[in-house]
Sequence to fold (228 residues):
Amino acid sequence: MKQISTIIFDLDGTLMDSLQDLANSVNFTLQTMDLPQRLIDEIREFVGNGVRMLVVRALQASLQDIHSEQLFTDELVENALQCFRTHYMTHCKENTKPYDGIMEMLHDLHSHGFKLAIVSNKPQKGVSILQKDFFSDYVSVAIGENEAEGIAKKPAPDMVNKALLELHETKENAIYVGDSDVDIATAQNAGLQCISVLWGFRSKEFLLRHGATLFASSPSEIVSLVSE
Fold:
């Protein structure tokens, strides 16, 4: 592996086990709209492309259950998205926590001089809250979804490029770490190698089908891989 000095992490499913809080906000939204709720394993498959797609996929599944696909409209999506965001901003830390070994990994990387960043399709406000409360000792840059500023969300490379710019680093010595097909594509689009973690929202078989080539089965393995 090339000499690595900078590591860019995905957030949900990579650093943080956030699935329960995401599922709770999805199901609160569906319940508010008198639609069938979704199982947590369904919601696991819905995440990865940002909040809007999470909400869209949940709405489509629930409307299909009641044979009311014709009720899917832009207005419905916007109302559901507002409901989800309001609920999630209040409840985003109730069950969300770093995966076992993550804090130790970040401490080790930081103490060895690696520059660390987070890039997530979660809205910037949520990313900032979690970065401040959990990772501020180690992670200096945390980029969330903010397409209003013209920065496309993953798998476009824009957010990775913004993180590198804020770190005053280039892609030549950087690597990306994530848990999904979106992360693999993001790394490819940004010209970075990708470490796919095996404790997140996708299975190894799924990741292999989407082009993953380098894996970590524990956070400590990331330290070993980037130190080689």
The longest strand covers residues 115-123.
